[in-house]
Amino acid sequence: MSLSGQTLILVPVDFSECAGSALRYAAGEAARWEGDLVLLHVVDRRLAEDIAGYTGEPVEKVKDRMAGRARKAFKEFVARWGGGDRVRESLVAFGLPFQEIAVKARELQVDLVVMGGYGSRGHGQIEEIFFGSTVERVVRLLPCPVLCVPMG
């Protein structure tokens, strides 16, 4: 259990359909255990750096714009997929997704991480083939349970 004595579930969100399924499942578990959800979107620093290189903008400006869009998207995402009554907070982090998910999970001392099986990039990417998916990397880094939810 988390420091508050209440079950705390972290749900990484990339706003994909699969993340929506994970949110729906996590909300059900939070209700079952009278717990709370923390939603986390990670702005991938590699993407922000690529955009900054292409546009010539400072990476901080790109990062801020992407984070602002994510904060707005949380409202629509929760409205579509549910669970809003269980969401304690929605966070935006900047870095490599698997690392930031692991850092936040440890920092918040979550009891469970519920993730979609694959995200907005889909599956079958070259990086995933050679280095593993974000879910696999998170599982390797965390001591708490990580539940991978398929779309549906």
UniProtKB/TrEMBL annotation:
<protein>
    <submittedName>
        <fullName>Universal stress protein</fullName>
    </submittedName>
</protein>
<dbReference type="InterPro" id="IPR006015">
    <property type="entry name" value="Universal_stress_UspA"/>
</dbReference>
<dbReference type="InterPro" id="IPR014729">
    <property type="entry name" value="Rossmann-like_a/b/a_fold"/>
</dbReference>
<dbReference type="Pfam" id="PF00582">
    <property type="entry name" value="Usp"/>
</dbReference>
<dbReference type="InterPro" id="IPR006016">
    <property type="entry name" value="UspA"/>
</dbReference>
<feature type="domain" description="UspA">
    <location>
        <begin position="9"/>
        <end position="150"/>
    </location>
</feature>
<comment type="similarity">
    <text>Belongs to the universal stress protein A family.</text>
</comment>
